[in-house]
Structure formats: structure tokens, C-alpha cells
Prior knowledge:
Structural class of chain B: mainly alpha
Number of helices of chain A: 4
Mean pLDDT of chain A: 94
Oligomer: heterodimer
Number of strands of chain B: 0
Largest sheet of chain B: none
Mean pLDDT of chain B: 85
Largest interface: A-B, 36 and 49 residues
Amino acid sequence: MNCDQWFEKLYLYIDKDLDAISWNDVDAHMKQCRPCCNRYDLEVKLRTRLQKSCKFEVCTEALRVRIQTILKKL
Amino acid sequence: MEKPQTASRELFEKEALPLLDELYASAVRMTKQPQAAEDLISEVYTRAWKSFHQFEPGTNLRAWLYKILTNTYINHYRSKQRQPYLVELDKPDTHDDGSAGDLYDRIVGASPGLFDNPDALLANRILDQDLKKSIETLPDEFRMAVILSDVQNFSYQEIADILEIPIGTVRSRIFRGRRLLQKILWTQAVEAGIVPANPIKGPTL
């Protein structure tokens, strides 16, 4: 597997959307190719940062009350 | 409409209300406005409770709520006008403007020694608000796919069910959405003066 072929499968690898054989190919290439390993690392770190910054947002107390009021009326 | 039972009300409050903060976060990223997000979420919870008798216990309530969220957003909140930006961004990355490649290529190609290691830009210079802004800049279709996959961690199959689109479409929207997000992050970094503006060609992929 060369770097281009590896790159085509990168997201499928990260998203666990590969069969075992392809997964092993991607994994093996990455272990012996520094730039691809770094590229993978950056993708994973970006994902982690996105989740950390965007997954939750504490909603206002007003919204919480509004929803509870709506639910009580229904 | 059949009268929901007290027991199911308790279940709804116990299971659905704790998801408020994450649904609200997704709503803010979709509508880009806290007030619109509050209206959207109020409507989502209203609809969810009204159709809660259709929810099959034991199936994924979180995914079910996201389906209501995305449906409500698409049908009532999304701007109906065509997004010209989408057409432009839909084109494959070209290599003639020096802005090709993913974030890694841009960082590595920027200038030797600008960053100690490839993730220094991400670790030290890109702030939470930059990440939020980059998601909000994505065109609708890509934004929804990226929120559901990268932020909320749904699988391709779950996203296909939530958005009611084929799994191949999910895959392609996620891939293109991620590339686009990285392009936007880089553009924002250039605009903020964090990285030099002069385009330097990255390695060709």
C-alpha cells in the first residue's frame, strides 16, 4: 500500500468502516510511514478538539424552564 | 391523539431531558444563533413528547431525538435559498491556488520550521471558538454530517437513519465536509495572521 492508497482509506479506518484485511493494510502502512502516521495523528486530534469544544453547550435556565413548562401543558 | 401514560412521561423526562445540553449545542451549530436554537429545541422537545408513544423502547432514544432535530431544522429553519457557496465548494480541490490538500498538507507545506510539529497549530493556536466558527461556516449538508459524525460520534449507519439518506451519501458528505472544514480552519488562521498569507504549494496528493 502506498501513501495515496492509504489516504483514500484513512477516514474509513478512523470511522471503523473497513473489513479486517483492509484495516490491517492501513494499520501496517501507517506503522512504517512517519508522514502518514502524523497525518492520522492530526486527524484524531482534530476530532478530539471538535468534540471537546462543540459537543455540549450548557443551555440557559430560561430554555430549561420553557421546555418543562411546555411539557407540563401537553 | 392517544393520551400518553404517566409512566412514559417519567421515562421521557428521565431519558430525554439529560440530552438537552448536547441537543442544544447541535442546534446552535445548525442555526448559528442561540435564540433560534432555543426555539428549535423547544419545538424538538414538543414534537418528541407528542410522538413519544411511537418510540420503541429499547431502541436508540438519542438517535431518535436527533432525527426529530434534523427534520425540524431542515423543514422549518434552514434557509430555503440556494447556497451558491455549496456549488463552489463542491468542486474538487484544485492545485493551482496553492490552497490544495488537507490541514496536514497546509501545515507541513506552509514553511519549514513554522511549527515544531504538525499538531502545534491545532494544539496552541486554534481556539474553541475557531472550531465552532469553522463548523458553522460549512454548507448545510456537510455541516449536519460533520456535527453528527465528528462532534456527536454517530456511526455512518446511524447518520444514514437520522438523515434518511443512503450510507454512500453519508460517507461522501462526511469526507468532503471534513476536507472543507480543514480548509476553512486554515483560511481562518491565515485571516487571523497565525499563519502566513502567501500561498505555498503543499505536496500533491
